[in-house]
Design goal:
Blueprint (H helix, E strand, L loop, with lengths): L4 H11 L23 H9 L12 H4 L11 H4 L14 H12 L6 H26 L14 H4 L6 H18 L11 H20 L6 H17 L13 H8 L8 E5 L11 H6 L10 H6 L19 H4 L57 E5 H15 L4 H6 L1 H7 L7 H6 L3 H6 L8 H14 L6 H7 L19 E3 L9 E4 L12 E4 L35 H6 L11
Parallel strand pairs: 4-5
Antiparallel strand pairs: 1-2, 3-4
Length: about 575
Amino acid sequence: MKFKYTILICILLLVGCSDDYLDKEPLSDVTENNFFLKASDLQLYTNGFYRMLPSTSIYDGDAVADNIVSTTLSEEMRGARTIPTTGGGWDWAYLRDINYFIENYEKCEDESAKLHYSGVAYFFRAYFYFQKLQRFGEVPYYETTISADDMESLQAPRESRQFITDQILEDLDRAIANLNEEVQAYRITKYSALALKSRVALYEGTFGKYRNLPGFETYLNASVDASLELMENSPYGVYSTGSTGTDYMNLFNSQDAQTSEMILSRQFTQTVAVDHNVNYYTTTSSYGRPGMPKDLVNSYLMADGSRFTDLPNYNQIFFTDEVADRDPRLSQTVRTPGYTRKGEAMELAPNLGATMTGYQLIKYVSEPVYDTYDESISDLPVLRFGEVLLNFAEAKAELGTLSQADLDASVQLLRNRVGMPAMSLDDANSNPDAFLEDQYPNVSGANKGVILEIRRERRIELYMENHRWNDVVRWKAGQALTKPLRGLYFPGAGEYDMDSDGNADVVLFEGDEPEGQVQGVQYIKIGSDIFFDADNLIDPQPDFNNRMFDEERDYLYPLPRVELQLNPNLTQNPGWE
């Protein structure tokens, strides 16, 4: 059996043009019999698995859901998904590569290399199947390579969710046992496997709980155990206390992943032209105009820990007052008065031309030199310690075993970083937030209040990190995606100072465009450039205010038509028949 073409290219690059190259076997003869023999062989092969990690799609889980509002709503938000003929995420190429490695790695004589790189392979097989589980639910399961004439395997039926989840967790346990225990932001380690296990087990535990599936407690406990091992036996989580929030912002606009927090990151560098588009995405008016929705802005607490939504007429407070004295993470995620670009001194007001909602995103945004298309090089998080802390707190809250000490050891570390008051278990449960209850009406029980508060914390802390869609799915909270999408409040036409410097930054007008326009001021026509609802809130998507979410269909994606024809033992997901 021959290697895939990309592996051969990697070998060519490594051997270069050495004098003894002609004395080696032809590359066309590289097989499982003369490869997998050295540690470098195992490293070279497993390097290809890292292409599975998200790159510029790091915030897709927010953009397809209700965390990022752009010029075009996703098919998921519009309820417009259709059954694809082919593709649609039903791709198994990486799995074959992984299984081929697992079948051959033991030929290596280096015992430590065999342990570590087998752990890398088991991690990525778990990662692969977790993506399939989240997207399709039940899928066929393969742990060996399949020949083209093995019709029994090629036409295998879908396995149960429990079976797939148990196989994922078994692979992660193998990875945890075998992987090197070290801090490496760009490589799979034992800590990466523990973090992924924490995520997988929480996902399936809550997915099961909110659908009354038996055995969900087992998965929640597995999430607690994996999270706790990381919390107690790893070097992560060295947070400063009482800062103004800049530690949070700098965590994401740094060119190099900060290893006190980032367990696994996607690396970007101009040296080999590996870049992404986040600066261009968030600062221009021609690439989607992404913005934070007002309901999420409303979710941020006041700096003293009280609820913004308890204020009278909280939806009719002008921007500069609205964002004052809030959880510092708000000003580290969207432009607010006093904002300056990294490496710059000039204060910048929000650019309404670059955001549909008026709340302009700054997470991941670095120096202006990286603003052109496909030039950003800030490393992007895949797994980080902050998520693990939230996974731990949520799993214990859902199990009914959460204590104040647990909150202090998890959520409070995140709040310490931005100088926010502690989350009180008793206060949260004795007085659940009605604003959050409206978003998640299926949360109940003695821990209702603290579960809602942990969800608030999660949505804020992990914003733009690819979690929102999957969180909505596992919580069975699809109706949250049908809520009105809104933006800034403006009383009406007029001049507005958006950065509290005493000068107008925005002029809203009706009818003819004003004469004598001032350079640097944004002139925006009501009913043409911008739309408002009856409460004078920006309506970024007036054509999509009657969205629907099908509770029997929309939590899973459909299987492609061709795959159902090729494999008569496959069945379509409910509601997509």
